[in-house]
Amino acid sequence: MLKNNFFNFKLKNLSFFNQILLLRSKLFFFKIQRKNLKIFKFFDDRRIGSLPRILIASIFIVFTFYLLPLISSYTKKNFMITNEFQNNSKSILAYTLNKKNEGTYSDNELNEKDLLIDIFSLNDLETDTVRLNASTIKQLFEDTDYKLDDVRQKKLVKPVALTLLPAEIKMIENTKKRKEFFIQIVLPLILKENNNIRLDRKTLFNIINKSNNTKIEKKWLKNKFKQYGIPSKDLSILKIRMDEIPVSLAIAQAAKETGWGTSRFAQEGNALFGQWTWSGEGLKPKEADENKGHKVMKFNVLQASVRAYQRNLNTHSSYENFRLARAQLRDSQRPLDSILLSQFLKNYAETGNQYVEVLQKIIKQNNLKDFDDAKLLPSSIELESLT
Predict the structure, then answer these.
(1) pTM assigned to the model
(2) Which of 60, 89, 203, 314 is the most buried (most CB within 10 A)?
(3) Same domain, residue pair 78 and 189
């Protein structure tokens, strides 16, 4: 054992605590040559006594023991990052439901076919539809006693779901009548899609509140993650995206995008909301290059257009703030205010804030908020046979 002045004192002259520290110091410096440590030369030159040396050594030892757990934790964390794995035994419901934002994701990860697969299926089922003329549709509304004045008062809508817009709608010269006719056509379609989403939300919350899920429920979740473009399979994001669009806002956007049902895209492609596509079937804008750019998405039935519109607002990154604002209204148990939410749709059109102002003007001038709390009556075989 090395002998040096550092340890040359009597243990009995020290307190019990200092004795322990001294013993630790002996163990720590047991195999270290004094001549190789410059700190001892520093002590000797300045004639620093034993007790100060013990104090400094003790601080050094305590600091070392304090750092060791931190170094170990850092090393372990980096190892886990470079060797990341998933524990598949954990339930999919382990995701937090209290996130304040939707998280990060890349639009490049989203597949348009996955997002719209149910919409394409709806198109395939309705390829032999017949376009009714305006007079036939008006008669249908009269026969079923479907009037907007009654809807504003009773909040009940007859389930008259038309598949195509009548070509004669543009020939209705009275602006008020043309607008009311258009609203009568699109209102049941919008309510039906909101009903679908409402049922899906009910299923989602039932799944969330269960500790174990069936295979059918897990498969349902898998499909919904695809439909709502969530490759991370984060339930908190699904909860935010899977929600309704205010009826008044949807009507206003349909009116703006189609000129109250008179546009070429609406008449030829059942495109009520002017949605773009780069891979699906669509109509080329007249001013667009024939071989480049987007097309306006084309649908076989109006219902598919409404569903695609809602899916667009509920998935595209441009409308994330819209969805977060809607979620905040939900959390505070407030109604979905179309005027408030319209402020977050400036990216829907190139005119930006001007587009928002137009939407708000349409909503107010036509009292569209009257339809926000309307309910769709159950359909009957007799009514369905008429359409």
Answers:
(1) 0.69
(2) 314
(3) no
* Distance from C-alpha of 174 to C-alpha of 260, rounded to nearest angstrom: 12
Residue 4 has pLDDT above 50, yes or no: no
- List CB contacts of 208: < 8 A, sequence separation 6 or more: 93, 97, 235, 239
How buried is 225 (Cβ within 10 angstroms: 0-12 exposed, 13-18 middle, 19+ buried)?
A: buried
pLDDT digits (tens, 9 = 90+) for 207-231: 999 888 899 999 999 999 999 999 9
Q: What would you report as the CA-atom Rg of the chain, rounded to the nearest whole angstrom?
A: 35
Do 208 and 334 lie in one domain? The reply is yes
- Written as one string, the DSSP assignment of 20-54 is HHHHHHHHHHTT--GGG-HHHHHHHHTT--HHHHH
CATH number of the structural domain spanning residue 264: 1.10.530.10
In a domain, 87, yes or no: no
The 10 Å CB-count burial string (b at 16+, else e) for 188-214 is: bbbbbbbeebeebbeebeebeeeeebe
Q: How does pLDDT run across 100-120, given as a tens digit for each residue? A: 345 444 444 455 566 667 777
Does the residue 15 lie in any domain?
Answer: yes
Q: How far is CA 120 from CA 114, 305, 311, in A?
A: 10, 10, 13
Q: Are 377 and 159 in contact (CB under 8 A)?
A: yes
Q: Which domain holds residue 70?
A: 5-82
Q: Verify that 293 and 348 share a domain, yes or no.
A: yes
- Render pLDDT for 298-309 as a digit per residue (tens, 0 to 9): 888 999 999 999
Domain-ending residue, one of 82, 112, 143: 82
